[in-house]
What we know:
It is globular and about 70 Å long. The chain is 36% helix and 14% strand.
Amino acid sequence: MKPRVLITRAIPENGIEMLREHFEVEVWEDEHEIPREVLLRKVKNVDALVTMLSERIDAEVFDAAPRLRIVANYAVGYDNIDVEEATRRGIYVTNTPDVLTDATADFAWVLLLATARRLIEADRFTRSGEWKRKGVAWHPRWFLGYDVYGKTIGIIGFGRIGQAVARRARGFGMKILYNSKSRKPEVEKELGAEFKPLDELLKKSDFVVLAVPLTKETYRMIGERELKLMKPTAILVNIARGKVVDTSALVKALKEGWIAGAGLDVYEEEPYYHEELFSLKNVVLAPHIGSATFGAREGMAELVARNIIAFKNGEVPPTLVNREVLNVRKPGFE
Length: 334
């Protein structure tokens, strides 16, 4: 019998077809998230699991899945998986870096520009008929936004996506500041970027882009103190994880003018609704679609399949997260 793979949401067909050549594949086709009790039931006879960020993969899941040998996360992040527990049990964990870097970096700029130039407000004004009712073709004080070209951008988290955001900033003639766990001299030289302590970056930046993973250190790293350090004309863009920002503090900052605006693609809980935050005009909102291009999502699906197929063939998966697992179990299905 072929090993069995459960895919908890319908990924692009290219990845599914690759897997079907080697595995018996089941796909949860419902647009709604797979219920926890259904997941626990379906993993009973599963050898490989393709999962999403919103699904908690922990000891309870592992207990329910005695045959499970590899979890392939359809995302760059993997904070939804108890990696330490997986490693202890000899379960491989993979993710999908690189293939969504450019799409996500592009989307950071979508949020940045839309917020700076008040695009969503202007769109609503136009399509609602309010422009026509005003009876004025143009007014010098309508929808005044903030200049981008030649300004200073501060990027918190300078991995693949953070660096890709910086490369785009060069096209806008921007001064590039960054903060990360370690300095990156080669990238500094390439991009003309300057490493700054977090507080200094926040004080000096006109635009702050969050591109860090969610860890114990980054949980709510942007709170009331940090937001008060920012310029009142500054804009915050979050393409990282929602829990990197204290939402209550952000709402206060946007309402009281500590900062000028925010562009958000991620939230403390997802799916999400926050009446007070969502009612504000100086925030641009998207439902976690940073990687939502045909190319990126198909690339993610292919990488998921390549990881699981490599494991089946007794090879180390290309984007193995927990390399310590190699000391516990060799790749391959028994």
